[in-house]
Design goal:
It is an enzyme of class 6 (ligase). By secondary structure, this protein is α/β, with parallel strands linked by helices. The chain contains 20 helices and 30 strands. The chain binds 5'-O-[(S)-ethoxy(hydroxy)phosphoryl]adenosine.
């Protein structure tokens, strides 16, 4: 589609920060002279010591180095909290909407300061110091943000673990970064049900499985009483009982780490993506302001979870750095029914809603019922993130949720990019349903073919980024070589996203999805290797191969091929047991949709599983299998097709 179908609404055009000419001018400057551009925009953040240096980066695959604002000092928590006290002490920083429709809280910036400083002093009592790692495994409650900010205040590196992960997954992440403390809650609430967070942590640390952990801090969120381990466990409220608000923010260099966030890759164990302080804060606050055209009185709602990068950058750090009122929602879009999102919008007069296509599709499945009895007339801008948004979902979001009044920012980015990379900008561009459109300032996207040749003009290929931007991840925790290998070695001298993309005749960008072995299931990023290793840990499984397949609601579903150990019967009971096993070992978000018994898997003569073929069979596209001549045993393919489920 060359023609823009949806123009930017006229009212927005008159008031917005940008117009097409202004965007182009700023973009051109950001590329032609990044030092001057970022030197100027870096000042949006409060620095204790101003920076003299700006960009110092190289994408050489054997020597990747990424430094921004190197000699400047600052504190991320100070920027999100203290600096707003003179002007915004009584402004609401966080609106919390509980899982239960009757539960809500408003926390002012003054209260945020009090809560964060007291908790930071509590962590100090436990011996937490600059550079220590602290794991956070929390429900969507304000205390999750307090915990992150308290770590940032002390210079401790937080590692938030999504509340849907299972004990083994928690232990892996805690051990990889050698966390000293785990912060959790006795229980979370989602969709009217309890989430056993503390019980999961208990299992993770049981029998000395997490030897570096000295304490587990437990926020009492519900009345449920679970097990208690006097050696480790400390109640949050008891810890801060005698703590005051006197807690100076640690002076951090721009390149001191702010947080680690584990994410899935093509191979191996999850990767501890490391973000540092200065560039990240500049980039997330600037993208937040420009992409959502934030105004002082806005009520802004990003409906993600703090366990993912979207929650870090666009629930906590970006909005709070900008002094915005950010809404945190504990529950799910369909509880108590499908009108919940629309009702929250009306209840809190939300101006900006940022959510994921998977949530949109779940609501769309109920027709227009999701908007029943609501007005949603406070909305000005909508956002989408996490996976490609199909045009039908885009149209529904636009017309039903947005009353056909609000532009949609389809924001493409990744855990590794720290902030939004490609998105329409109000009111710099018109919109095309399904297109991420234009790069943010300082971002230089390009397409390459599989050999790394740069593609010019309208084309499809692998999406790479040619030069560094301030919000970029600096390394993988404890493994810089893997960082270089994963992102900079596929194509020389550029950052490889792992995504495919298309540039249309107008020069606009469309993201087409991962081209590697990373799955995107309901907007959750999962590695096939992680699911496979959970499966082979089961005694009945000899070998497993996991691929994604197109799924109407989830975007991608999980299709598993299992070769059982000799002598084991393949039965429906075993299938059910394996599904349960993966949920327990890894996470319910990794629940397989289909398990197919596979007497053999298609392998090359060197023993590599040919996933391309497995993907085609899973998607029911056996007609276009492509070349199978390099297989060690081509007959395996025939038998897999014969056995395919739902045939
Ligand atoms: C996908 C989430 C298409 C993409 C912020 C990327 C998208 C992965 C979009 C990163 C979008 C994210 N359109 N695809 N607007 N946004 N993706 O690390 O495949 O959880 O590589 O970060 O999500 O997922 P992650």
């Amino acid at each position: 589609m060359a023609q823009a179908k949806y123009p930017m609404p006229a009212e927005l055009k008159n008031e917005a920060r940008l117009d097409p000419a202004k965007y182009q001018e700023m973009y051109n400057q950001s590329i032609a002279d990044p030092d001057t551009f970022w030197s100027q925009h870096g000042k949006r953040i409060t620095w204790f010591t101003p920076y003299g240096q700006v960009k110092n980066t190289q994408f050489d695959k054997d020597n990747v180095k990424i430094e921004w604002f190197r000699d400047g000092t600052l504190n991320a928590c100070y920027n999100c909290v203290d600096r707003h006290l003179p002007e915004r002490a009584d402004k609401t920083a966080i609106i919390w909407e509980g899982d239960d429709v009757d539960e809500q809280k408003h926390i002012t910036y003054r209260e945020l300061h009090e809560q964060v400083t007291r908790f930071a002093n509590g962590l100090k009592k436990l011996g937490v110091k600059k550079g220590h790692r602290v794991a956070i495994y929390m429900p969507m409650v304000p205390e999750a943000a307090y915990a992150m900010l308290a770590c940032a205040r002390l210079g401790a590196i937080h590692s938030v673990i999504f509340g849907g992960f299972s004990p083994n997954a928690i232990a892996d992440r805690v051990n990889d970064c050698e966390a000293k403390v785990i912060i959790t809650a006795n229980e979370g609430r989602r969709g009217g049900k309890g989430v056993p967070l503390k019980a999961n942590v208990d299992k993770a640390v049981a029998k000395g499985a997490c030897p570096t952990v000295d304490n587990v801090v437990v926020f009492k969120h519900t009345d449920t009483q679970g097990d208690w381990n006097d050696d480790l466990d400390v109640w949050w409220h008891e810890l801060i009982g005698d703590c005051d608000t006197d807690c100076p923010a640690e002076v951090m260099f721009a390149e001191d780490p702010l947080f680690i966030l584990y994410t899935s890759g093509s191979t191996g164990t999850p990767k501890g993506v490391l973000h540092s302080t200065g560039g990240y804060m500049v980039y997330v606050s600037m993208t937040h302001e420009y992409v959502f055209d934030i105004r002082e009185d806005d009520i802004y709602w990003c409906a993600a979870d703090v366990g993912w990068i979207t929650g870090h950058s666009y629930i906590v750090y970006g909005p709070l750095a900008n002094g915005t009122t950010t809404l945190m929602f504990e529950g799910v879009p369909t509880y108590p029914d499908e009108t919940r999102i629309a009702k929250i919008i009306d209840k809190h007069k939300v101006n900006i809603l940022y959510t994921a296509p998977t949530a949109i599709r779940a609501l769309m499945a109920k027709g227009d019922a999701a908007a029943r009895g609501t007005k949603r007339d406070s909305l000005r801008i909508l956002g989408s993130v996490g996976e490609p948004i199909n045009p039908e979902a885009w149209e529904w979001y636009h017309s039903v949720i947005g009353n056909s009044q609000c532009p949609i920012m389809d924001t493409f980015w990744q855990t590794e990019t720290g902030g939004i990379m490609i998105s329409p900008l109000p009111a710099a561009s018109d919109m095309k349903p399904g297109a991420a459109m234009t790069p943010f300032f300082g971002v230089r996207p390009a397409l390459v073919d599989n050999e790394g040749n740069h593609l010019e003009g309208a084309s499809s290929g692998n999406l790479v980024i040619l030069d560094s931007w301030p919000g970029q991840a600096r390394t993988l925790w404890g493994d810089h070589e893997r960082f270089e290998q994963t992102y900079f070695s596929t194509y020389d001298g550029v950052y490889f996203t792992g995504d495919g993309a298309r540039i249309d005749e107008d020069g606009d960008l469309w993201i087409t999805g991962r081209v590697d072995d990373v799955l995107n299931v309901s907007g959750h990023r999962l590695g096939t290797a992680e699911i496979e290793s959970a499966l082979v840990a089961h005694e009945a499984v000899a070998e497993a191969a996991v691929v994604g397949f197109p799924h109407d609601l989830k975007g991608q579903g999980i299709y598993v091929y299992v070769t059982v150990v000799d002598g084991v019967d393949t039965s429906d009971e075993l299938r059910a047991e394996l599904i349960k096993w993966v949920r327990q070992e890894l996470s319910p978000i990794a629940t397989p949709d289909h398990i197919q018994w596979a007497p053999g898997l298609p392998k090359t003569r060197s023993g590599k599983i040919m996933r391309r073929i497995l993907r085609k069979i899973a998607a029911n596209e056996h007609e276009s299998l492509g070349d199978t001549s390099t297989l060690a045993d081509p007959s395996v393919v025939e038998s897999l097709i014969d056995n395919r489920l739902n045939k």
